[in-house]
Design brief:
Elements: H1 2-5, H2 9-17, H3 21-33, H4 38-55, H5 65-81, H6 88-105, H7 119-133, H8 137-156, H9 166-178, H10 183-202, H11 208-212, H12 231-240, H13 246-260, H14 265-269, E1 276-277, E2 282-287, E3 292-297, H15 300-313, H16 338-345
Antiparallel strand pairs: 1-2, 2-3
Amino acid sequence: MLETLFRNSRVLARHLDGPAAEERDCFVAHFAASGATRDSVANLASELLVVAQRLDDSGTRNRTPEEVASVADRWVRHHRRRGRSISPDRRQRFVQVATDWLRFLGRLQLPPSKPGAGTDLVDEFALYMQRERGLSPKTVNNRCWHVRAFLTWLDDQHSGAGMATLEHVDAFLSMRGAQGWCRASIATAATALRSFYTHMAATSRCAESFVAGIEGPRLFRQEALPAGPCWNDFQRLIASAATDRPRDIRDRVVLMLLRIYGLRSGEVVALTLDDIDWERDILHVARPKQRCKHDYPLATEVGNAILRYVREVRPRCASRKLFLTTDKPWPIQAITGYHQASVLASRKPRSSSVWRVVSA
């Protein structure tokens, strides 16, 4: 690999005659196979030669991260004594290249990993869920992950599983919320902690009252359902009804009332010609639940759309209902609810014939 990178004979000889040439050549070839550019590979080969020279051996001895950092510091001091400045980024690059190379060779000696807080308790809890509860491996791993995270956090608070309080649990769950966890994820964490401390209470290592106090956020059956289409989708839906067809002229007004004023379908159906005060630009809306009428300013866009519908489309009849069918008998009218608009907003815009007319 080195022969293909360096054409200059003197440069190539320096690389081939340097320490651990064969090992360096293998690592450079591995780096090139990952898709790196030729310039990146050549730069790595040059940096790796410096690393091998400063390690001062043939790459046969294991090195610890502390030794690599010490060699990097000596390399920086060597350059400073000669009046050359080495930036922190170049030192970090030296450490990174040396670490990656030693790891590739299997000669990076890492310190033994410290067991996590409460490892024995988590292992015992996992066996309990597998053997006595018969839970699936996925559920076991998920609950153990949450419990392990809680015990690690407790250790940072200089506490342990047996000394935890409800204030600790609430603080941990609040921290998850501050980190951006959704309500469902926080509720899952609370369920895992409740299951863990249920096992602890069964083995007399905590009080049963403690388990009863572990509560997550309340989840509602349909809270994941969208409240409605976003504004851009509804604008797209309204724009799809901006035609000269009678049904579209009528339905465009309905869409505006649903979205701009947030009216219910029943409130739109109940609108009459008398509910529009053209002199004061006021829209009167009957609120069935409050058994009263609320007044809203009539937006110019909505008023113009209603006026066009009344003048050009609405059939002339004795009924005072604002919205009528385009076919006889005209007084028999109603429109679909807001949920249908939510479904339509996720589809490609089309004609407003989807606003079906049913018996009032």
